[in-house]
Amino acid sequence: MQDTSQRAAELAAWLAGTDIDLLELRTPHGTLRLGRQGDDIVELPGQEERAGETAETETVAVKASSVGVFLRSHPLATQPLASIGQHVQAGQLIGLLNIGPLLLPVAAPQAGIVDALHVQGGVAVGYGAALVDLHPL
Fold first, then answer.
1. CA distance linking residue 34 with residue 25, whole number of Å
2. Which CATH architecture has domain 60-136?
3. Taking the domains of the chain in order of start, what are their residue ranges?
């Protein structure tokens, strides 16, 4: 029988040959999350299941610093600034808030891995609205 690290390596090799950005496998023994980081596949923090309870790994919520329309990419670009599973550095641009002609940066407060996007691009948000969740590194 194969050990867990060998199985994870095989899954990572398989994932590298696909266009899947995030793979999450849940079993009675735990959760395995693999995601893309550029051309590399990395293991992401996941959820641990203990005695029937799910305990989530602590995340950092990136919140709107103002009211505005949340943009996942610059208006002149098609590539999103941040995607689920992406590794980001502290201060890296992960979105924009559009207020009339003004574009305010939404930056990662610390290094981490993008875990969730709470708001789709082009949606109006209020002050303090959760935009993105990061798993700290």
1. 9
2. Beta Barrel (2.40)
3. 4-55, 60-136
d(CA 69, CA 49): 37
pLDDT tens profile 23-64: 777 666 667 777 776 667 777 665 443 334 444 558 899 999
Name the token pair of 117.
């996007």
**54-to-25, 113, 114 alpha-carbon distances in Å:** 14, 20, 20
Give the pair of three-digit tokens for residue 57.
């790994």
Q: Please, what is the Cα angle at 125 between 122 and 126, to 5 degrees? A: 165
List beta partners, residue 102: 99
Three-state secondary structure call for residue 69: strand
Residues in the chain: 137
Given a contact cutoff of 8 angstroms between Cβ atoms, the answer to whether 104 and 66 are in contact is yes
Range among 4-13, 14-23, 43-52, 70-79 with highest mean pLDDT value: 70-79
Comparing 135 with 29, which gets the higher pLDDT? 135
The string of DSSP letters for 24-45 reads EEEETTEEEEEEEETTEEEEEP
